[in-house]
Specification:
Helices cover 35% and strands 21% of the residues. It contains seven helices and seven strands; from the N terminus they run αβαβααβαβββαβα. The longest helix is centred in the last third of the chain and has 16 residues. It has a single domain, classed as SPOUT methyltransferase, trefoil knot domain (Alpha/beta knot, 3-Layer(aba) Sandwich), CATH 3.40.1280. It has a seven-stranded parallel beta sheet with strand order 3-2-1-6-4-7-5, with helices on both faces. The protein is α/β, with parallel strands linked by helices. α2 packs parallel to α3 and α2 packs parallel to α7. β1, α2 and β2 form a beta-alpha-beta unit.
């Protein structure tokens, strides 16, 4: 790990992080939850909010894919996604759903807001981001897709979107 310039989880948890948070809105798969933890750790992002029926650590299915990231990424449970988004918005966060909806912005055309905390909302594997949560979002972001299927697994979606946020924050073209 030293050769890769990785810091131990104990120090990483206390390290400076970017102001990017993720909200998981009723995500059923514990392996998806674990994968999002691992992705958040990889990019050094801030916090995960687990909402509604989304499972929480400790759980062996989450740990299977998180590979220890539940110890390095701060997280909190909140029962009501929409109420949480209202609260985060009132504290100055820009809230964006990752969802295919009318008026969504294609990911490659979206400019990450850097002047304020960013909250990205990922939804349920079948139903997506709930209507109540969508009503609290400032924008919706959509990943362009060209095949016969028009959805990604939530862990894949989070990886794609969080990579784009990381790329833009680092000023890469």
């Amino acid at each position: 790990m030293e050769e890769m310039q990785r810091i131990p989880a104990s120090r990483f948890k206390e390290a400076s992080r970017t102001d990017v948070m993720v909200v998981l809105d009723n995500v059923r798969s514990l392996m998806n939850v674990g994968s999002v933890f691992r992705t958040m750790d990889a990019f050094g992002f801030g916090k995960i909010w687990l909402c509604g029926i989304t499972g929480t650590p400790p759980h062996r299915e989450i740990h299977k894919t998180a590979l220890g990231a539940t110890e390095s990424v701060p997280w909190e449970y909140h029962p009501d996604t929409a109420a949480l988004l209202r609260e985060l918005s009132s504290r100055g966060a820009f809230v964006a759903a990752v969802e295919q909806v009318h008026g969504s912005i294609l990911l490659h055309q979206w400019q990450v807001v850097t002047a304020q905390p960013l909250v990205l909302v990922f939804g349920n594997e079948i139903n997506g981001v709930s209507d109540n949560a969508l009503a609290e979002c400032h924008a919706a972001i959509e990943i362009p897709q060209f095949g016969s299927k028009h959805s990604f697994n939530i862990a894949v979606t989070a990886g794609i979107v969080l990579w784009e946020v990381s790329r833009q924050q680092r000023g890469e073209q």
